[in-house]
Amino acid sequence: QLTPNFYSRSCPNVLGVVRREVFKALKNEMRMGGSLLRLHFHDCFVNGCDASVMLDGSDGEKFALPNLNSARGFEVVDAIKAALENECNGTVSCADILAIAARDSVLLSGGPTWPVLLGRRDGLVSNQSGANSGLPSPFDSVDQIIAKFNAVGLNTTDVVSLSGGHTIGRARCATFSNRLFNFSGTGADDPTLDQSLAAQLRQVCPASGGDGNATTALDPNSTDVFDNHYFVNLKRNRGVLSSDQALYSSDAGQAETKALVESFAASGPLFKIAFVNSMIRMGNIVPLTGSAGEIRTNCRTINSS
Ligand code: HEM
Ligand SMILES: [Ca+2]
Ligand SMILES: [Ca+2]
């Protein structure tokens, strides 16, 4: 059972310390807000929110396809952890750090805030395979993505509201360039991709050669601001990932996701309320509590006994 007051006696400044470190990181690079939000998501979907994503080691989640050359922000988490070890050693879990840093990243990007529930403990294992099978892919259908959310206890509303996390951050060409050239062997672009955006994206991701790691904003024209513009984009066929656009355009019986996109596009406040609600639900995915797991000293390694 998580609670917002978990550290009120053992580490009363925890929230201030994390806020200060996240602020520093975003001042240096606004994109880090997106990277930290995504890290919490990738943690919670694999073995629950237990900081498994943080563990080093060649069979760890960091080497799974959705994370390799993609997940970022590990050094910022290290800095937060070091500051907290200084403040109240052996007390705050890496899993809770990821949850607070995600909340602060959203707030400092102009989004909503909420009381973060705390008291998670850190897990002892991290496997590539769990991340490969549990994390949604940008090439998944809406039905496949819903199934992966259902598998961790989240619903279709959570799929759409949390996809709104793509209102900030960036994506590499490798994750969407299949939409730009000879889409699914049709000889043309993805028909659900706006032509002028397609032309823009082809500048970033040229057909041949170029830098496969080049990136573009997931929410063109509102990159660093946590707003509902992402949903407005979807209504204009301006979603960057195929999995984004499919929430609105999929003809595979997804009237429900389309209706949710419509309502979040129409109302920023409605989106923000739904996002907060879903973030709390995501942060509750099978947390280790009580004496399960441990409080890591270094987020990258389990404690030696
Ligand atoms: C619904 C299924 C989802 C899919 C298929 C998906 C896929 C992706 C992909 C492919 C990228 C780009 C990665 C790269 O370029 O290497 C990305 C980035 C991102 N995702 Fe998602 N994502 C999903 C859900 C979420 C959720 C639930 C959140 C958080 C609430 C989230 C937050 C982000 C953020 C903030 C970025 C940008 C990260 C950065 O700039 O470092 N995504 N996502
Ligand atoms: Ca995890
Ligand atoms: Ca935005």
From TrEMBL:
Q: What class of enzyme is it?
A: oxidoreductase
Instruction: Extract the InterPro entries matched here.
Output: Haem_peroxidase (IPR002016), Haem_peroxidase_sf (IPR010255), Peroxidase_pln (IPR000823), Peroxidases_AS (IPR019794), Peroxidases_heam-ligand_BS (IPR019793), Secretory_peroxidase (IPR033905)
Q: Would you tell me the protein name for this molecule?
A: Peroxidase
List of residues binding substrate: P136
Q: Does the keyword Magnesium apply?
A: no
Q: Which reaction does it catalyse?
A: 2 a phenolic donor + H2O2 = 2 a phenolic radical donor + 2 H2O
Name its species: Vanilla planifolia
Record lineage: Eukaryota, Viridiplantae, Streptophyta, Embryophyta, Tracheophyta
GO MF annotations for this entry? Answer: heme binding; lactoperoxidase activity; metal ion binding
What Pfam families has UniProt attached to this entry? peroxidase
